[in-house]
Amino acid sequence: MSDQAPAGGDGGGGGGDGDRAGASTDEILYIHHGDPYWNTHDNKTGHVNKSLAGGSNATGDLASANRDLAMHLVALLAILVVLLLLTILGNAMVCLVYRSRFRRTTANLCVVFLAALQIVTTCLGVPMEMAVLALPLMFYSQVACKMMRYVETVSVCVVLLTLTAIAADRYCKLTRPANFVPQRWAKGLCILAVLLALVLSVPAIVLFGSKSVPTSIVNVTGVACGVADDVSSNLFRIIYIVPLLLTFVFSLATMAVLYILMFIRICQKKSATRGERVSPARREYPRKHRFVTEDSTSSCGGEETRKFHTSASSSGPICTSSSRSGRTSPGMDPARVPLKSGVKESARIGQGASSMVDVQSTRMTFIFFIISVLCVVCVTPFILLRTLQALTDLVDTLQPLALRIVYEVCVRLYLLHPPLVPLIYLLCNHNFRREAKHLLQKVGLSCQRPAPIVQSNTSGRERKNNDYHS
């Protein structure tokens, strides 16, 4: 700005103020650079600039605005604390019960892995989310913002990929029970899911950082955790969006196809079981051939028995042998002993065990299906809002308070999935419910202090006399 005095004045500060007061809005006004006007006004907009009027006032106003916005998010902070505690307690119980009380199968291995994974990701992500909510306008740590968004993206991707691996394991278990998947393959799939999630989430470190956001105070900007200001190219935005959407679409499509095929297979098995009139054991041993003439454990063999039956002067018990089916009664033909054991009994036992395994596999498949549907419902708002945030800056500059609160809630709905998974096990798995109840009872009994035992020095006769006199 030049040193020229205001029009109609002598260059003094007081004359300049008087001329400015009387000047019309259409006149061009030249103001001295040392005029007090520039201490409280912006040279571009003419509005009051708190940061130019005084650094302490601007900082105080920003802190006040940050505090006011954080007070509206206190309820969300309390909910996050509750979700963190429920996630730790519920998934720790899942790990303990499925690891120590149940058999080591591929399904139980996947359950333990998923529970441990959710404990780790929740313990890392929730405290960072609480810091962002507590400092919505004064989050200056760019490194913490990058790490938080990276952990957040890893948490979502690893759960989706792990549930996809579990769906593949369930499909192999139901369709090819003979060629079951070994546990080392299940471990390999889970580890592969973690590694893929770690790699696919790397673009979040580049994209997110410190973001300048407007406040309710005119010309005072805050700093939040969002798409970094120094990210000007759309290439980084596309690099972040594409792996995230591909992971979501691939997991959703794969789980949908596999569970549809599994439900079709289950329905076919049920219809085939209902259509069978004769079991495999009865086809092998029809009712007319129920009795056999050979008993390997009998003291009288088949040839001896036939000779014994040919004698007309036989009297008394025919045979007192004891077979696998039981002890024969006197006068009963040992060749007519019903065969209740042997091949027929083992076939019936094998058929029952197979049906029990099918029921257990179907139940676990249904549980994993519910967990997968819940995961998709909780993760979908996060995917959509993060994609919208990467495409445009409108999300980071939301001004209406109601929209800001709705956004902060919806983008964190994925944190509902970890505490709800143990609840699904409690509702759908009777064995887990029984073992969890037993575990809680043991913990409750161990926490109770035993009553002190008072030992008396009096003998038994003296105690009896004292009771009698009392």
Automatic annotation (TrEMBL):
<dbReference type="Pfam" id="PF00001">
    <property type="entry name" value="7tm_1"/>
</dbReference>
<protein>
    <recommendedName>
        <fullName>G-protein coupled receptors family 1 profile domain-containing protein</fullName>
    </recommendedName>
</protein>
<keyword id="KW-0675">Receptor</keyword>
<feature type="domain" description="G-protein coupled receptors family 1 profile">
    <location>
        <begin position="90"/>
        <end position="425"/>
    </location>
</feature>
<feature type="transmembrane region" description="Helical">
    <location>
        <begin position="147"/>
        <end position="168"/>
    </location>
</feature>
<keyword id="KW-0472">Membrane</keyword>
<keyword id="KW-0812">Transmembrane</keyword>
<dbReference type="GO" id="GO:0016020">
    <property type="term" value="C:membrane"/>
</dbReference>
<keyword id="KW-0297">G-protein coupled receptor</keyword>
<feature type="transmembrane region" description="Helical">
    <location>
        <begin position="238"/>
        <end position="264"/>
    </location>
</feature>
<dbReference type="GO" id="GO:0004930">
    <property type="term" value="F:G protein-coupled receptor activity"/>
</dbReference>
<dbReference type="InterPro" id="IPR000276">
    <property type="entry name" value="GPCR_Rhodpsn"/>
</dbReference>
<feature type="transmembrane region" description="Helical">
    <location>
        <begin position="110"/>
        <end position="135"/>
    </location>
</feature>
<dbReference type="InterPro" id="IPR017452">
    <property type="entry name" value="GPCR_Rhodpsn_7TM"/>
</dbReference>
<feature type="transmembrane region" description="Helical">
    <location>
        <begin position="405"/>
        <end position="428"/>
    </location>
</feature>
<feature type="compositionally biased region" description="Polar residues">
    <location>
        <begin position="310"/>
        <end position="319"/>
    </location>
</feature>
<keyword id="KW-1133">Transmembrane helix</keyword>
<feature type="region of interest" description="Disordered">
    <location>
        <begin position="294"/>
        <end position="337"/>
    </location>
</feature>
<feature type="transmembrane region" description="Helical">
    <location>
        <begin position="366"/>
        <end position="385"/>
    </location>
</feature>
<feature type="compositionally biased region" description="Low complexity">
    <location>
        <begin position="320"/>
        <end position="331"/>
    </location>
</feature>
<feature type="transmembrane region" description="Helical">
    <location>
        <begin position="189"/>
        <end position="209"/>
    </location>
</feature>
<keyword id="KW-0807">Transducer</keyword>
<feature type="transmembrane region" description="Helical">
    <location>
        <begin position="69"/>
        <end position="98"/>
    </location>
</feature>
